[in-house]
Design a protein that fits this description.
345 residues, alpha/beta, 8-stranded parallel beta barrel, 12 helices
Length: 345
């Protein structure tokens, strides 16, 4: 298993906790990423949103691409998976920008291609917002252009959305960046199986994740492509006892009625008690982070991770809070013992 983490560009991940002790600042994320690669983490995902959808749109959110360029210069080992929305970036210009950052990083850049979901954000900035299947049609063309510019000395392209004539991208990336993407629609999965290198999923149980991976493997084989990487988002809580871990879940899922966006959520909150509890967890932690169940003692969390490995997951994209302290704990109690056990004698 490879271990990744979300760079906290939003100043945290919890909608019910106002101050998580992890500011949306270069000082915090640079210290976090430098420390992370020292203690066993392999990758960081730098999300791209201009508006802060966790702490409220009035709160700061770091820009993904300038942050990634800076991280490329101050880290040595971390793979830098940077999110990019095709409707916000012309592919020829992004290909040039990404290639330059990959050179700064010595070949450690990767892209997380996200077909945008937040219409309000696009409208606020006066940017194009495509309807669902149109997003993936755009993304497909966008990937064609980026790939062509990274491969060819000069690249010409005539598509419905993008047209290039003898375009040049130099220097090229040190190596072709890995292309990660996620999506659960037919349009998304078809495009990802044909054009991407890795499939990333929201958090869920091993029983739900395993058939998703099996489906993508079949699609990949049918496309005649090499095997993919499979990643999943998860929120991790490791404590000395199961009771302490449960107490932390209760703390972070205790609703804050004054939090930004709570009024809309309160209208949605209905149904049976179980349905209410599930919805509260979905609201409290993003990306379905509590569904995987990486909550408990180190032994319990390691056992749960083994279930995901058996289901085909290669990469965990972790959120924790407060991130630096919790990543230290996770590394010491979950990552290090497994690494020591698997090391050759």
């Amino acid at each position: 298993m490879r271990y990744g983490f979300w760079t906290p560009v939003f100043g945290g991940w919890l909608r019910n906790v106002r101050d998580e002790g992890m500011s949306a600042s270069w000082d915090y994320v640079s210290r976090l990423c430098r420390r992370a690669e020292q203690i066993g983490y392999d990758l960081t995902l730098v999300a791209e949103l201009n508006l802060n959808d966790i702490k409220g749109i009035e709160q700061p959110a770091l820009d993904a691409w300038s942050t990634a360029a800076a991280l490329a210069a101050v880290t040595e080992r971390l793979e830098l998976m940077v999110a990019v929305r095709p409707n916000f970036h012309h592919p020829a210009l992004l290909a040039k920008q990404a290639a330059n950052i990959d050179n700064i990083a010595g070949g450690r850049l990767a892209l997380n291609v996200v077909s945008s979901w937040w219409a309000q954000e696009a409208e606020s900035y006066g940017l194009q917002f495509d309807q669902h299947d149109d997003r993936y049609a755009r993304t497909s063309e966008w990937l064609d252009v980026v790939d062509g510019l990274w491969r060819e000395p000069r690249f010409t392209y005539q598509g419905q959305r993008y047209q290039l004539q003898d375009a040049i991208c130099a220097p090229k990336p040190v190596r072709k960046p890995v292309i990660y993407a996620g999506g659960e629609s037919e349009a998304a999965k078809s495009m990802i199986a044909a054009q991407c290198d890795a499939y990333v999923m929201h958090g869920d149980t091993p029983e739900v994740i395993a058939p998703k991976i099996a489906d993508m493997r079949a699609r990949r084989d049918a496309a005649g492509k090499p095997p993919m990487i499979y990643g999943m988002a998860a929120y991790a809580i490791v404590r000395d006892t199961k009771a302490e871990a449960k107490s932390e879940v209760e703390r972070i899922t205790t609703l804050d009625p004054a939090a930004p966006g709570f009024a809309n959520f309160d209208q949605w909150l209905s149904g049976t008690q179980l349905e209410r509890e599930l919805k509260i967890q979905e609201y409290s932690v993003s990306n379905r982070g509590l569904r995987p169940g990486l909550v408990g003692t180190p032994e319990q969390v390691r056992a749960r991770i083994a279930e995901f490995e058996a289901a085909g997951v290669d990469l965990l994209l972790l959120q924790m809070s407060p991130q630096l302290e919790e990543m230290e704990r996770f590394a010491a109690t979950v990552i290090a013992p497994v690494a020591e056990h698997s090391a050759p004698a």
